């Protein structure tokens, strides 16, 4: 598949496949243009493409898509440089690029986007110390280049893990591909699944009959999982695009 990488001064046409990760795309750009991967931010329609995901996670990327490349320069401020860390679960691990000034809460958000693990289920440890205050920065806990952070998942009884349903107020933003880009305010139970949300929108004739993909915080939502499972909160935006997702 052919895409175009756009900057303020030049255009790079590149052959890629949908299974390539964003970090692999950045590596190609570094080879072609000499721009360090740590200085690159890639985005489509103001959606930042995250390193740990691949092109299949972004249904808006198709043949001929223009991807914007922003080149970030922070040579004057060491504390704001990007660092590579490892996030380790009991049976898997992920390498993530973060900013040293990011908070623990921000890191949990990235882990959720990358792995799908509910934020409320995570407990993070570094060098045996629990990173229990979400507002504190990673550097406050001594996290540096190549640090390994351990993720423990809270094991709770079902009655605790599944609190009573509550109402959520959020906005569904449709894409311009649906003829009119529209903001649809909704109030539904947080126990509702994505499929139930789709059926509600169709029943109210707020969207035409078709196949759709729902996205929350740059992650494709799963049909049979609840809004609570996806971490949807009051005031959040869900984005809807025409299409389906299939994995080989």
Automatic annotation (TrEMBL):
Residues 1-60, 83-158, 168-240 form the Ubiquitin-like domain. GO terms for biological process: proteasome-mediated ubiquitin-dependent protein catabolic process. GO terms for cellular component: cytosol; nucleoplasm. One of its GO terms (molecular function) is ubiquitin binding. This is Ubiquitin-like superfamily protein. Pfam families: ubiquitin. Gene3D superfamilies: Phosphatidylinositol 3-kinase Catalytic Subunit, Chain A, domain 1.
């Amino acid at each position: 598949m052919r895409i175009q990488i756009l900057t303020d001064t030049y255009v790079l046409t590149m052959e890629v496949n949908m299974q390539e990760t964003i970090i692999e795309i950045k590596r190609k750009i570094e080879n072609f243009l000499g721009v360090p991967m740590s200085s690159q931010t890639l985005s489509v329609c103001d959606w930042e493409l995250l390193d740990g995901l691949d092109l299949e996670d972004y249904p808006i990327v198709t043949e001929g898509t223009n991807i914007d490349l922003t080149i970030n320069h922070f040579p004057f401020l060491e504390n704001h440089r990007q660092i590579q860390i490892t996030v380790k679960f009991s049976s898997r691990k992920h390498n993530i690029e973060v900013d040293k000034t990011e908070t623990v809460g921000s890191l949990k958000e990235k882990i959720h986007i990358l792995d799908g693990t509910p934020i409320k289920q995570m407990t993070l440890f570094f060098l045996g110390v629990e990173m229990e205050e979400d507002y504190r920065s990673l550097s406050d806990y001594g996290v540096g280049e190549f640090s390994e952070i351990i993720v423990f998942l809270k094991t709770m009884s079902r009655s605790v893990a599944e609190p009573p349903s509550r109402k959520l107020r959020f906005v569904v933003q449709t894409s311009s591909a649906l003829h009119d880009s529209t903001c649809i305010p909704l109030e539904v139970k947080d126990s509702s699944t994505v499929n139930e949300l789709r059926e509600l929108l169709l029943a109210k004739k707020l969207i035409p009959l078709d196949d759709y993909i729902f996205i929350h915080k740059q992650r494709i939502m799963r049909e049979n999982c609840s809004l609570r499972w996806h971490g949807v909160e009051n005031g959040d935006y869900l984005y809807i695009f025409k299409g389906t997702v299939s994995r080989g």
